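Table 4 source record.
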Amino acid sequence: MGPRTALITTVRRQHDEVIDQVSGFSLGAVVPDFHVVIALADRTVTQGRLPITSDRWKTLIDGLPTVKQQLPTARALQLGVETAVDAGAELLVLVDVTCIPGPRFLEKLVEHIEGTQHAGPTLWAPTVQRLRPPPPEGYEFTRLEEWVRTAHPHPLHVVPPELGEVDLDPDQFSSPCLAVLADDLAAVGGLCADYVGGMGHDTDLAAAVTAAGGAVRLVPGATVYRQHHSTQVPDAPHVASATRDAYLYRERWGRWPTAPWLTELVEAGLVSLEEDRAG
């Protein structure tokens, strides 16, 4: 029997997305023991009005208020972690609500983690594939691979099997889906809950894991599919959150993050980093 597993996500009015997430992982022969959903000022979720429950897993719902224009995503994920661990979860999968786990996602993830020798805490990065816009009738969850967008893949979107044991640079790491054993997460002090806007907490956790003598590892074969969203020009709150998170990372680790959530804004001239600014 494998570790008791929790899928942990946050929701801010993305009701269709969280329903699709459940539709995806419900097709697996292996499903999570717990689906932990943390609502960000979302009464529809906290009042249990979404069809996301099943007798095959336990759905755990909690919520947080939000600060205007800055979603406390990291704090919500840490609440989700605490909720899952209190319920008995041993493997924690933090997944963005826009991600749909493939039918064999958990099976492959657990198989890889149990079959891999590793020293020190490990942060596992599953494969992420981006989807094209859905057809009018919606995605067919057993055939998501047919809707993968092949143009301009993110480096973590397509992972050759031989890269499974390659250690990743923590400063560059960012992923909408990551996995960590509860004991490993506790050993590095948990998530830093001060990051906002859904950025930075994953890069920070990668830094914490490597600083503790561990590594960030890719997991071939365990695939989640990220739903299509239109590219938009970052608005002022997004830029402000990214800037705040960049300075927080530098304060904690003594260097700038080089993950896409920041570098893309710097390259676009939307964020300017000042070495002498206080953190």
